[in-house]
Give the backbone structure.
Amino acid sequence: MTLERRTQALLDLVEEDRRAQCDAILGEAAKQAAAALAQARAEARERVREAFTEERARQQARVAAARAELQTRRRLHDQQQAAGWLAAAWQQLPLALRARWANADTRRHWVGAATAEARRVLAPEGWRIVHAPDWPAPEQQALAARIQAEIGSRVDFTEHAGLGAGLRIVAGRNVVDATLGGLLADRQAIGALLLGELGVAS
């Protein structure tokens, strides 16, 4: 083999080695570039997922806050409405009770409930009944006779112009107050009953 052929063979060998090394370097670079691109895409997808998750959480928090505010406003509206109804009822209630006292049938129920409570809680002697004006004497006499028969005690009656309606039964220091003022004294309990009648939670 001539020198020229040997030289060419060596050059070919060097070129082949250079090409192999270049192919290897380019292959490794392509792998690294593909891996870097895949990682960048994965990281980008993860960032997008995180951004969507955060936005969804913010949206859910805004919706929850809006619902809470709506419930608060509804409660306030209901409370204001209930307060308005109660205010109207408190204006009408004394008038309605006076009308019941003025009516013989409803007055009889009123007196009957008051005397039943008095029999339950008062000593059966020395009753004094303080009553609103315009209670007919025959009704008082009938009640006195009934109490005399039931508990064996005499009853004194006293009219009091300031009562408006109803009666107060006194025995010693104990009192059953079924006057207009006495019946309306516990505003909280009466308010709860009124709201119950109206179908509103108190």
